[in-house]
Design brief:
single chain; about 375 residues; mainly beta; 6-stranded antiparallel beta sheet; 3 helices; Neprosin; Neprosin PEP catalytic domain-containing protein
Length: about 375
Amino acid sequence: MISPKKLILLTFSALGLIIVAKSDRTLSLEKDEKELVRSLTSINKLAIKSFQTEHGDILDCIDINKQLAFDHPLLKNHTIQLMPTTIPKWNINNNKNSKNGDSVPFRQDDISCPSATVVVKRITQEDLIQSQRLKSMGSKYSRHISSEGKNIELSGFHFAVAEYRHQVFGAKVNFSIWEPEVSPTQFSSASMLIAQGSKEQFQSVRAGWIADGFIKTGCYNILCPGFVQVSARIPLGIFFGPVSVYDGPQYEVGIRIYKDGSTGDWWLVVYDENVGYWPNSLFTKAGLGHGASLVAYGGEVYSPVNEKSPSMGSGHFPSEGYSKAAYVNNFEVVEGSVASKPLFPVTLFSSTPNCYKASLTGKKKVWYNAIFFGGPGKCV
């Protein structure tokens, strides 16, 4: 399998009904260069200050009021919320006797944005073409659940997840971080999805990490207006590191998505920092406007049908256990103003169990409703 520059990235899924609908065609490699330049001029806002990372990416500090989010027609008169007005009381478990990976702190040395700005990754022509290509494929898991599993072609897509199908207003998980091997036409990801509705009314938000051979940017929805960033420290599409080692040190990242009980906005928290939010005005009553009915967490991969599918997670099956299989733990849900352990069990689902699986860990405390997931792949 070809081994391109592999990246571990923070990714945000499309708010399918709202954001993707705004751009229903993809860019091609043959697209006129002038049109690409025009698109980049619109996407990349005026930088007040810039930095180059060790990976070669350029990060720009831009005016918080001029970010891409406000190109969305529903956000023209939006008032930015710098902080959530209501915050769930999360259960923090620091039990040193439980097997937990080390939390990976976000750090970008020598990066400090001025006040009233946010930090974003500067998009290149290559980023734009490849990100649109990945977005055109989308997440087949999202399509699978939105259609209730009916009439969805899954060729090339595989997933192994845990599903919690009850009314919630947020959730929290910790993901172990791995670096799956992928070819230039594949991706392998781990994420948490929160969703509501079905078919045309389906809406979802998602966050996690992705390793892919398509793009250097990471988040393929960074190009879609709608997500309002407030963090001056964490840009969309950041590198995760270090990554977990088979039968060695384990590293993880905590992600929270929850609905502000006052404004209705859906907030994203990473590394205990408020990264930003999806404004309530983007959601419908039948969608995420009044909460969610599904939380799903685990892995998803894609490969063209003429290639063997890539590994998921660590590339090993759940039966190998801690330090060898990828995991998601510390799952909590918000069902009022307080986060708690789920009142109901989760359901496990694997689309291709001979190549990828998900299983409950059987542990207690922060491992309640936790899963190991993944597999070597090689499905065709």
